[in-house]
Structures are given as structure tokens and as C-alpha cells.
Design goal:
single chain, alpha+beta, ph1033 like fold, 7 strands, globular
């Protein structure tokens, strides 16, 4: 099993509004979402754990806002959230980026396990960086900004999960 952080830039996709709407509409059932990746394609497998990271975008706050597991990719027309994606793109650049990712990147399915959307629930960058063992996560490295997906070592994942559980 592998562990991943998938980042979303709110400058181009309104990830918080997206997650809040999914959470509000999901009720008791877990929804399967899709993400597009360009790196680690052969390594991302069903059963892997995924954390959804909101980049700074135009604001100052970034961190983990959801957790999920990678699922087998469903038949293309069976994505329950597919038709809504475009509504959450920001500007023409966001819509163009979405279309480019749909054409050129691997699609992975993520089934949400938990959302961390209320004011005190997200695991923000400042709190993560307080843990010495997490300061070297690639999500913090300048050169990794455009990657979109980041591998997380199992021992670091345990620390992240512990921090998230304190926010519930």
C-alpha cells in the first residue's frame, strides 16, 4: 500500500466548495471522485491512501481537507461527479486545465473516507510543519509545486493520520 498527497490549486479549481458540496450531498454514502495525475502512474493502486491538499492559490492557507482511498476506476460514464467538475473551474484557465488533464493524464478514482472542512478540522501547513518528521514532505518543496501528486512514506502517513484524528 502507498500513501499520497494530491494537491489542488484553488486559483484554477474551487476545491473547498467542491468538497463541501460533495460532503453535503453524500449523506451516509461515500462518493467516488476522480483525480488526474501525471507522475507515479504505475505506482498508484487501489487500496492506497490519499490526502487531498488545497494549495494557497490566491490566499494564504493550505493544508489537508479530505482523506480517501484509491478505488478501481469505474466505467467512464459511471462517474457520479463528472458532470459537475466544470462548474467548479475558476475562469477560462481552470476550464482549459481541466480539459487538458482529462486528455493527457491518468485518471484515478478516490473514494472519500473523511472530510475536514469545518474551521478547526483541516490539517494546515503550519501545524504539519511543527512535526519535525513531516517538514521534508515534498509538498513543501518549491520545485515540486507543479507535480500534483506527492508520495508519502508510511511512517509520515501515520503522523498525518494521528494529527487528523485530533481535529475531529
Amino acid at each position: 500500500m502507498n500513501y499520497w498527497i494530491i494537491q489542488s490549486n484553488p486559483k484554477y479549481f474551487d476545491i473547498l466548495r467542491w468538497l463541501k458540496e460533495i460532503f453535503a450531498s453524500s449523506g451516509d454514502k461515500a462518493l467516488t471522485d476522480r483525480y488526474y495525475i501525471s507522475c507515479y502512474k504505475p505506482e498508484v493502486k487501489p487500496g492506497d491512501t490519499v490526502f487531498i491538499w488545497k494549495c494557497k492559490g490566491n490566499g494564504n492557507i493550505r493544508g489537508i481537507y479530505a482523506k480517501g482511498t484509491v478505488e478501481p476506476v469505474p466505467v467512464p460514464d459511471k462517474w457520479p461527479l463528472c458532470d459537475k467538475e466544470r462548474e467548479f473551474c475558476v475562469g477560462q484557465r481552470g476550464r482549459d486545465d481541466l480539459e487538458k488533464m482529462r486528455r493527457n493524464r491518468k485518471t484515478i478514482a478516490v473514494k472519500y473516507i473523511s472530510f475536514h472542512l469545518n474551521e478547526r478540522e483541516p490539517l494546515l501547513e503550519d501545524e504539519i510543519k511543527k512535526k519535525p518528521e513531516l517538514r521534508d514532505l515534498t509538498i513543501f518543496k518549491q520545485g515540486e509545486v507543479r507535480r500534483g501528486i506527492h508520495k508519502v512514506a508510511p511512517e509520515k502517513c501515520r503522523v498525518i493520520e494521528s494529527l487528523l484524528s485530533q481535529h475531529r
